[in-house]
Amino acid sequence: MPLRLIFMGTPDFSVPTLLELVAHGHEIVAVYTRAPKPGGRRGLQLQPTPVEEAARKLGVPVLTPKTLKTEAALDEFSAFEADAAVVVAYGMILPQSILDAPKLGCYNLHASLLPRWRGAAPINRAIMAGDAESGVMVMKMDVGLDTGDVAMAERLAITDNMTAVDLHDRLSRLGADLMVRAVAALDRGGLQLKKQSEEGVTYAAKIDKAEARIDWSKPAHAVLRHIHGLSPFPGAWAELENARVKVLRCELAKGSGAPGEVLDGQLTIACGEGAIRILELQREGKARMQATDFLRGVKVEPPMRLS
Predict the structure, then answer these.
(1) Which stretches does DSSP call E strand in 33-173?
(2) Measured by CB atoms within 10 angstroms of the end CB, which terminus of the chain is less buried, N or C?
(3) pLDDT band for position 212 (cuts 50, 70, 90)
(4) What is the pLDDT of residues 125-141, one digit of tens each?
(5) Predicted TM-score of the model (pTM)
């Protein structure tokens, strides 16, 4: 039997799960998302979230409350008489009263292998830390920060050529499938929960633009993972001839030299140990481009240096 579900989500990452739940016959009685923000070329138009856009196309009621901590918000939420709520990158705290409202509970899809990388930026942090794998987990929510009991999980290897957007897209699709299976198990009464380990807890703090500058004194692999973990946003950057350049994709390369030193005419840059070759970049105020295209218009060769 299909379940009556409230869906709560905001960014692109959430949309595949919403669509898969609908495709598998579940009744989405309401969608909760963040309120539209100013956008467009002049910042004068209100831009709905990706989840709101998807929900409107599906004809599902959309709610954008500023808080869920009031009696009015609880009454509105409870009036939908949902069996459960599915939460995917919603971006707001759910108080205990909301968590208790659906008779089967609230279930969150989180993009990490909990308890590693609880918090706001698990995809970025996993890449930046050099993790060999990531994944998605479905957990029954409690009032803690990603501390709920885990129901199901899927793992995914992180390769050195993966950027944050690459991992984001793969986990988004993997997570949609996982949540559909979890909801089916919940419907059958067969969803088993397991407490998270108290060992190995780490927190994925929100990315601060101040940490985006590339530190060429680090080993090449650490530089590569830093670059890929921040690609495409906010974008790891360095200065070349006093102009800021975002580095969006790179690979490990042979060579050595002083940190930041340009080693050849193919954008091979020395690190504290080893070197990387820049494959894709973006000059300030310009569109992103392949390194080969960049080098047609800009000569970068020894003894130049990135700082």
Answers:
(1) 37-39, 45-47, 62-63, 84-88, 106-110, 118-119, 133-140, 150-157
(2) N
(3) very high
(4) 999 999 999 999 999 99
(5) 0.95
